[in-house]
Design brief:
CATH topology: TIM Barrel
Number of domains: 1
Shape: globular
Strand content: 15-25%
Strand order of the largest sheet: 3-1-2-4-5-6-7-8-9
Distance between the termini: 28 Å
Helix content: 10-25%
Structural class: alpha/beta
Amino acid sequence: MIIPIIQNVDRNMSARDYSHLGDKILVTSVFSTIQGEGPYAGYPAMFVRLAGCNYGSKQDMCSWCDTSFEFDKGKAYNLNELLAELISTSGYNPKQVLVITGGEPTLQPNLLALIVRASHFFAHIQLETNGTQPKFFATAVNLHMQSYFKSVVSPKANERLGKYPQVANEVLWHASCLKFVMTADPTSPHHTVPQWALESGKTIYVSPMAVYAEAYKGEVASIWDDGLIDKAATAANYHYAAIYAMEHQLLLSLQQHLFIGLA
């Protein structure tokens, strides 16, 4: 078993932690890049990373997560301010994909309003979520029918219990696709895709886990950095995920941003 380097540790947040924001939304970073994974892999994209996650402590869940989304680093924007920030960021183009990620975006009460408003400025919008907040999907009941919108539900396994929690039916119903992180380590619950997902009828992406030899700062990591990436372990994960995808007729989703050295 490979012991992960736990980076950017935060605390576990809940929807109540955002109740003081009023009409605002809490953001840690905005940047233009190439989308690395999922249905829009390879597309020019604008990322807005929302602050806070219900798995922020990265203990029982997501110990491998390399993302910096700390709640206390978030900046509160009203929607007009955030949209102005997005379209003034270098690289903005209305043909881009807007990727709304985190942390866990569906904790924030103004997420739906952001998606609807942003649809006037971007050709496509992708939401990245761990699927643990069915209340959002109950309020956004018709969003999945919009041609500009995709919801990528990426469930996370409980590493202490050794299994994935069941995703709520309303979340699964609205998911455009599912995405699972995979490792070659047979002792990890991320070694397989849960049976309920294989039987869901949803498009499933499998994404091999990058293994870090040391922590890094900021958003940018490179797979070509000899000191940063454990290349042998990462290569094993990539090979294993490819074989698993072929065996189960799933889609392989490589982290392209690691190869091009962008966030």
